[in-house]
Amino acid sequence: MAAIALTAGAGAKGPAERHARVVGVARGDTLLVRLPSGRPARVRIAGIATPAGRDCYAPAARARLRAISSGTTVRLAAAGNGRWYVTLPSGVDLGRALLADGFAQLDAWGPVFARFPDYVQSEQLAQSGSKGLWRACTTDVATTLTPAKDVVATGANATFALGVTNKGALAAAGIAVDLRPPAGSSFVSVDAAGGSCRIAGWHATCVFASLAPGATASGTVVVTTLRAGTLAVRAAEKFAWCTRAPCGSTPVADSNRQNDIAGGFLAVGDLGTPPPVLCADSYPTVCVPPPPPRLECNDIPFKNFQVRRDVARPDPQHLDNNEDGVGCTFDDY
Questions:
Q1: Tens digits of per-residue pLDDT, 89-138?
Q2: 3-state SS, one letter per residue, for the chain
Q3: Can you give the CATH number for the domain in which 54 is found?
Q4: Whether residues 125 and 9 fall in one domain
Q5: Most buried residue, 113, 172, 196, 238, by most Cβ within 10 Å?
Q6: Domain region containing 247
Q7: Same-domain check for residues 312 and 241
Q8: 132 and 144 share a domain?
Q9: How many domains does the chain have?
């Protein structure tokens, strides 16, 4: 006979805390237990969600839960809405332990629970340490923004090619690209093949339903130019991550966040006059213009490039804040 769901709370029969012996695992976040009365029950662990069925890391999550809980007598504390905090004989909070080791993530679609602040910290540490599913179930979505011309005349529109590529081994769903023009400029038009774009006042957004491994989506961004100088447009993408509906087996993380944000820039000059200097000599391996305007790492498409300090004006854009000779590394943002 199948186990019945164990419930407790307002209007439910039974104590808010009890002990039970683990006799099996239904999935990575659900235990099969036997109560002291001999009655079988199904226990949904509060605050966490794991991949299910054939989703990425589902077998590993089930195996981990089975390995650390099967045959033990656990303490159950009601968390409300049919969910339970589970404590192992060692005193370890089972849900938090699964989060900390990367076998589960926070249940973003489940009910609110009291231990949320502690669980958030555990998940963040696992994610930053690339543990478990945060390493195995990732993809790499990269964004580029390339100007059609290096120099345009003042008052003419500037055109950029938008590119979004899935460099990972798993499909990425729900990709959204946020576009922002420089101060004083605005969008003329934004469109993307296979996506839906919308201009909303000072920024624009392009949304792509899904991008298969190795696939690229493209678009065109056109902005106004009002004055001579350097014009930089920024694009930043993100995609949906989850292990449960509505995302199914969607990857849970982006393995390379440095290429999530891209910048494209060009020079704007008046007709009949020389265009502004486009490349500062402090950056010998890439072309980054000197200020004004002030550019940040997110405004340019380059990462991990050489920054010379033996020049008349070293690092004019302050792209090497830790002064290690390499610009736009993690510590420079």
A1: 999 999 999 999 999 999 877 888 999 989 999 998 998 888 999 999 98
A2: CCCEECCCCCCCCCCCEEEEEEEEEEECCEEEEECCCCCEEEEEECCEECCCCCCCCHHHHHHHHHHHHCCCEEEEEEEECCEEEEECCCCCEHHHHHHHCCCCEECCCCCCCCCHHHHHHHHHHHHHCCCCHHHHCEECEEEEEEECCCEEECCCCEEEEEEEEECCCCCEEEEEEEEECCCCCCEEEEEECCCEEEEECCEEEEEEEEECCCCEEEEEEEECCCCCEEEEEEEEEECCCCCCCCCCCCCCEECCHHHCEEEEEEEEECCCCCCCCCCCCCCCCCCCCCCCCCCCHHHCCCCCEECCCCCCCCCCCCCCCCCCCEECCHHHC
A3: 2.40.50.90
A4: yes
A5: 172
A6: 139-274
A7: no
A8: no
A9: 3
Where residue 191 sits, what CATH number does that domain have? 2.60.40.1530
Residue pLDDT, tens place only, 198-253: 999 888 999 998 899 999 999 999 999 988 888 889 899 988 877 766 667 777 88
The 10 Å Cβ neighbour count of residue 299 is 23
